[in-house]
Amino acid sequence: MRHIAIIGSGPAGYYTAEAAQKKFGDDVAIDIIDRLPVPFGLIRFGVAPDHQSIKAVSRRYEKVALTDNVRFVGNVSVGKDVSIEELQGLYDAVVLATGAPNDRELTIDGADLAGVYGSAAFVGWYNGHPDFKDLNPPLDGRDVVVIGNGNVALDVARILSKTRSEFEGSDIVAHALDNIASSKIENITFLGRRGPHQIAMTPKELGELGRLENACPRVDMADFPDEGDDAMLEPGMRKAVMLLREFGAIPESYRADKKVDIEFDFFASPISINGDGKVESVTVEKTMLDKDLRSQGTGETYDIKASLVISCIGYQTPPIEGVPYEHGRGRFASDQGRILPGLYCVGWARRGPSGTIGTNRPDGYAIVDLLAEDIGNGKGKSGREGLDAVMASRAVDVVTFRDWKKIEEAEHANARDGSPREKFVDIEAMIAASQN
Ligand code: NAP
Q: What is the pTM of this model?
């Protein structure tokens, strides 16, 4: 029997489990360990609450979870309840599928002022992550600056500008819905340090910005290169740039009765965040592109008013003591996913935070091919029995998949009209629901 522990129950974790089932059939026992009592990681806490069709992929993970050779071991914190070394002693392979839940640091003056958040915290807040339930971001000011031109920046701006009725069918948590629906926000500015041809936004997501009930995007056509240059872009990017051009052509008359103006400020790099105790403005330097398409400051600066700043500049994987780590890239150091004998990484923890949810599928299959070469038919480890003994000796309240289904049932029962669920945002409340 082969024993595999996967740390992290997000997409990379479940695709790895699925691949291991396919590869080893009944001759494998897989434990998916998560520090939270609820599974699915990024699907639950990262994917936007108004993107329910993307979240539906969790049904595929559930199929894997409900098979006999896969267990969900929730509410177990690796590093606190059990160490990596202990897990390596218990399992033939330990796979870190911990994602990239920490923000890439914004290293400018004023980044620590009140009212400045990284997207991990902000997205976690509206998605009901227990770590960020008390964030209480100030939405009573008029001006928001969103740093970055990626899909997370788009999610954040869209969520902030939706009306209550536009959240119908979403699972945005009640505390965020109430605050957003009564917000005073009128201006949201995306700061992109490069130009329209360098955005990291995808067309489907960008298109949503043009269909908001009470908000409208604004793009300055002077920021664009010649239209003929769009032909050099790959098709997805060309489509996205076409949408930006359409935004640039929206007449003022259409904009007039929209409450929120969403402005794309291109060639604009934040150089400081200013305020007395809390954010009041952002100083921005105009940039230009060098021959390698990197942004270079021009020395020309200006200030933008801001009562809230959200930095959406990418994520990093939290390091684990004793596990080799690439600090510059914010991910574990590995050779194709092999970190140390018996220790592997997969998904964002291996590649860094890029690609779609589906990108993690081939990643999961590839790591299982590698570990299959290394572990053979298994090395007589104790696997789940050994883990159970350690957890029992430490009185850890392990949450199983069956327990999770009780939590889920209670979340469904608590849902407001039209919403699939009202998430529990307290770990204690999740555990209490799991014991009903
Ligand atoms: P991302 O796609 O890497 O975008 C990060 C953005 O931040 C880029 O525009 C980057 O500009 C900018 N940036 C980085 N450092 C900066 C700095 N110091 N100052 C100013 N700007 C800076 O990251 P993401 O938006 O966090 O998304 C992560 C992944 O999740 C992506 O693969 C994304 O597509 C995916 N995702 C998908 C969806 C969806 O499909 N619905 C939703 C959310 C996320 P440069 O290009 O100049 O570096």
A: 0.96
